[in-house]
């Protein structure tokens, strides 16, 4: 082998001059000329790397190509074939890095040559240096050519070649190029497998960092790549586990001690934004414990999070223009009408003239579409609205970004609905309805947001009598359920429901009203049951009976029960200590994140188990929503009166065991009148106080109006249905009626004289749902005792002067009584006592926390027994609870009425079949008096009561005792109206 010419700096110019002359003289006839030509191409390649002269690399590529094409075999000229191929790859890579005039051709050729080296046995013929000299430049060129901000996908062959190269070359630059290409493809095609492979590679690059040493440029690029990837995945697939993974990854990267400050600042921006997204979803703050700045929710913030590091892309003109357009958008609501046109025209000058290879070219147009819609809203100019529609529509067609596609769908919807309202064009209506369908089924947005839009779909479809009404309502109902599953704990689920606008919360009620309107009465009952008390229903599903399943498949039953228990533990957790680390978790993973990720794993397993269970013989309906036939069994012991308050048209439905549902329509002002009555009552409570004369007057007025609104037509219908007076009836109210005393409507004119109320005609109970009532009647696992049931008395007399008298009354009822009083009545001892007693009687303070229904509690010694602690208990043998405390059947202010989250409902849920509670604060002296007559009735074995379980006597016993209280001198209206009965 001849000595190669030295490619060192200093002799390159003279070497190339001599070689050029020699080639001209000897090329056609001498084998030496071919070899020297190869040397010339090699020296030009080396000189190009030193002097950055573009003509050198162009010539080098040209010469290497000439040799490969015209001389075979090259080895006969003392030129190793794979050595030339390797150098041509390097030359093409340098050409691409400097800016090729034919990028596509050069990329394809470079990839094919590298593929040839790796797959055709040439690797063994190359020295390690030659191999690295080819593969590393190839990798760099592919990454540089297909940048994160470009709109061109890397070819699959290039990716496959990089995969093979990574296996052969232990160089982080090769690994990074593959991760980079996969990231580019993920940003465009959103295939989750690309994300997973890219992040796995990038993680390994970062993990190769030597402690104490600085980060290499490749490792810094890998960190930035992870930043872009986690944010992009989160915005493309709105799943809570992706949100937690993004927070965890970003926090871990920020904590790297060797990370330069500028890189840490970029990651901090991303972390602040994803933590804000978490706060918006769940009300949970980040690791700092502070609410992150409100920078999320707009298009610009989303793309700033994905903006590549400086190596990948310079300051994008489109981002700069978008920032200027954002400023213009912010001024439109404040400027004078005459200046709106100037603002729009200024914005128009910032639009790009044509498409660009920059992936973010359309950002200015996105912001301009918002400007146009805002300008229309300020001026009512139709041309602005028409242009906004065209702009949104065009952007929706060209954008490869899932979030942008979704957001443009929302913008187009708003614009088209505005034009529908103005012009009533049929084609606009059809496009609106089709868009609703597409947007609400777009998985790139979180379920909570899509649920709100689905309500808009149902509302608009019904308003315009569109055929999609039923589909819209069904979609909205499904998204409502999905919204709850999105969150791990009951408290956060309630937080999400509270965030829903009041009118949107009425979705199940509106859907039921539509079904009634179209004659689908039974389906309406099913809808009301499915869409109310969602949190109780979810928890009840976790405690569903598995006796039939155990008989069919014991192992499957046990696994299903275990998953349910674990899910219940998660659901009832309190995720307030977000900054507390969990010992067995990953570093940087907070309590909430652990809860959420555990919930997601358990939910996936539960869904799989339910599918298996439903495939078993006889278990096809396992955990499916109850049919009307099953729901109607709630009326077995007496009519159930469902009051459906809908803004469209309210209805009252009476379920009867032997008759079809009886439905009657209400006056047009029924919905608003109910809200007014609730408002009057709550305002008087808050401003005047329960013991004021003003409150009694307000209550009397509300009860009289309620009788005219509800009581009178219900009594008339019950008589038409031949329901005898003194029969048991159950109220199942919705919305405002959950806070109104339906049992005490009146006074009612009667032959017996004035001063009679609804409870004088029928024995009233309440139930939050039909399922809750059905559950309260299921056979007790322990048979009814032949003797009076044991009773647990829980009392705190130190803070209640009248409690001593009530304690004496209860202890003298003639039944075995276990007394936990004062310091013996702690939350722990009370929960333990509940497990051993069928009856319980509380004499203590009941407390409410505004906006925190799960913190409603009984005040005990050493702490409070909260609603959440009660719900955690499982007391299948429990029968009756007398809650002689304030607010036990009252909804916490700022809670969701149709969820029925109060202490009485919690007692019913954990196992008590019948519960007596209070709608507001109670007078201290009423407890002893009421208890005396209540227990006198319930434990009497007079005619008609023998054989009736004691807990089933409780509703009549309460009526008996309340009548006694009413006759007591000085007892005001609010004092006896206060007491209500729940359950069987």
UniProtKB/TrEMBL annotation:
Residue ranges of domain CHAT in the record: 703-983
Pfam families per record: CHAT
Protein name: CHAT domain-containing protein
Organism encoding this protein: Lactarius akahatsu
Top-level taxonomy: Eukaryota, Fungi, Dikarya, Basidiomycota, Agaricomycotina
């Amino acid at each position: 082998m001849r000595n190669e010419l030295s490619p060192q700096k200093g002799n390159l110019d003279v070497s190339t001059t001599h070689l050029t002359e020699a080639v001209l003289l000897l090329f056609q006839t001498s084998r030496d000329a071919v070899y020297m030509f190869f040397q010339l191409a090699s020296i030009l390649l080396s000189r190009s790397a030193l002097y950055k002269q573009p003509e050198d690399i162009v010539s080098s590529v040209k010469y290497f190509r000439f040799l490969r094409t015209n001389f075979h075999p090259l080895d006969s000229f003392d030129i190793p074939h794979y050595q030339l191929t390797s150098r041509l790859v390097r030359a093409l890579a340098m050409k691409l890095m400097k800016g090729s005039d034919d990028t596509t051709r050069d990329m394809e050729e470079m990839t094919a040559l590298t593929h040839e080296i790796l797959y055709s046995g040439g690797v063994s013929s190359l020295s390690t240096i030659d191999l690295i000299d080819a593969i590393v430049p190839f990798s760099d060129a592919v990454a540089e050519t297909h940048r994160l901000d470009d709109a061109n996908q890397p070819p699959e062959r290039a990716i496959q070649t990089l995969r093979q190269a990574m296996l052969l070359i232990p160089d982080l630059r090769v690994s990074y190029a593959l991760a980079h290409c996969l990231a580019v493809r993920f940003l465009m095609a959103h295939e989750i497998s690309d994300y997973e492979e890219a992040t796995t590679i990038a993680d390994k690059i970062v993990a190769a960092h030597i402690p104490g040493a600085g980060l290499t440029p490749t490792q810094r690029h890998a960190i930035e790549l992870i930043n872009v990837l986690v944010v992009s995945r989160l915005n493309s697939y709105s799943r809570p586990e992706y949100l937690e993974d993004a927070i965890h990854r970003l926090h871990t990267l920020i904590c790297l001690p060797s990370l330069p400050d500028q890189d840490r600042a970029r990651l901090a921006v991303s972390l602040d934004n994803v933590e804000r997204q978490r706060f918006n979803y769940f009300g949970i703050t980040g690791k700092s414990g502070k609410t992150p700045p409100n920078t999320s929710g707009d298009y610009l913030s989303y793309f700033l999070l994905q903006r590549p590091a400086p190596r990948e892309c310079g300051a994008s003109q489109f981002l700069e223009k978008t920032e200027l357009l954002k400023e213009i958008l912010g001024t439109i609501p404040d400027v004078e009408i005459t200046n709106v046109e100037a603002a729009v025209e200024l914005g128009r000058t910032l639009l790009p003239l044509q498409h660009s290879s920059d992936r973010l070219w359309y950002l200015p147009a996105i912001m301009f579409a918002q400007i146009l819609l805002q300008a229309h809203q300020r001026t009512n100019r139709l041309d602005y609205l028409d242009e906004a529609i065209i702009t949104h529509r065009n952007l929706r067609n060209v954008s490869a970004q899932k979030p942008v596609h979704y957001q443009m769908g929302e913008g187009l919807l708003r614009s088209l609905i505005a034009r529908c309202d103005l012009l009533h064009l049929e084609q606009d209506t059809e496009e609106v309805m089709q868009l609703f369908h597409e947007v609400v089924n777009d998985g790139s947005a979180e379920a909570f947001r899509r649920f709100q839009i689905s309500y808009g779909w149902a509302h608009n479809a019904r308003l315009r009598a569109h055929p999609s009404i039923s589909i819209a309502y069904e979609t909205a109902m499904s998204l409502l359920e999905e919204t709850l599953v999105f969150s791990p704990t009951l408290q956060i689920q309630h937080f999400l429901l509270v965030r829903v606008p009041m009118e949107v919360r009425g979705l199940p009620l509106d859907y039921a009203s539509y079904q009634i309107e179209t004659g689908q009465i039974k389906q309406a009952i099913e809808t009301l049951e499915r869409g109310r008390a969602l949190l109780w229903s979810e928890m009840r599903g976790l405690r569903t009976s598995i006796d039939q399943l155990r008989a069919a498949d014991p192992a499957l039953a046990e696994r299903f029960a275990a998953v349910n228990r674990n899910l219940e533990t998660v659901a009832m957790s309190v995720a307030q200590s977000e900054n507390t680390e969990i010992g067995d978790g990953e570093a940087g993973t907070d309590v909430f994140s652990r809860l959420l990720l555990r919930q997601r794993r358990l939910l996936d397993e539960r869904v799989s188990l339910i599918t298996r269970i439903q495939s078993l013989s006889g278990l096809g309906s396992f955990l499916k929503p109850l049919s009307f036939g099953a729901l109607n069994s709630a009326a077995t012991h007496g009519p159930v009166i469902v009051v459906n308050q809908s803004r469209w048209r309210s209805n009252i439905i009476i379920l009867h065991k032997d008759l079809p549902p009886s439905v009657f329509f209400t006056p047009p002002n029924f919905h608003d009148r109910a809200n007014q009555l609730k408002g009057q009552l709550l305002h008087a409570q808050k401003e005047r106080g329960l013991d004021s004369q003003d409150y009694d007057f307000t209550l009397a007025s509300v009860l009289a109006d309620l009788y005219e609104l509800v009581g009178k037509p219900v009594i008339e219908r019950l008589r038409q249905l031949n329901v005898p007076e003194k029969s048991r009836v159950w109220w199942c109210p919705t919305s405002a009626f959950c806070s109104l005393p339906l049992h005490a409507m009146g006074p009612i004119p009667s032959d017996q004289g004035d001063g009679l109320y609804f409870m004088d005609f029928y024995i009233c109970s309440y139930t939050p749902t039909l399922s809750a009532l059905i559950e309260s009647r299921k056979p007790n696992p322990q048979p009814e005792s032949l003797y009076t049931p044991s009773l647990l008395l829980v009392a705190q007399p130190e803070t209640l002067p009248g409690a001593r008298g009530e304690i004496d009354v209860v202890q003298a009822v003639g039944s075995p009584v276990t007394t936990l009083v004062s310091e013996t009545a702690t939350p722990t001892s009370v929960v333990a006592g509940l497990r051993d007693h069928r009856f319980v009687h509380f004499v203590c303070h009941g407390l409410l926390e505004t906006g925190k229904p799960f913190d409603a509690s009984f005040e005990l010694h050493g702490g409070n027994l909260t609603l959440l602690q009660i719900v955690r208990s499982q007391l299948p043998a429990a029968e009756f609870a007398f809650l002689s405390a304030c607010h036990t059947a009252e909804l916490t202010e700022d809670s969701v009425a149709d969820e029925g989250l109060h202490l009485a409902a919690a007692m019913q849920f954990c196992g008590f079949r019948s519960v007596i509670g209070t709608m507001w604060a109670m007078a201290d002296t009423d407890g002893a008096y009421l208890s005396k007559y209540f227990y006198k009735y319930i434990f009497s074995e007079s005619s008609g009561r023998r054989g009736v379980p004691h807990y089933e006597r409780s509703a009549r016993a309460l009526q008996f005792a309340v009548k006694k209280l009413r006759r007591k001198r000085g007892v005001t209206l609010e004092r006896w109206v206060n007491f209500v009965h729940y359950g069987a």
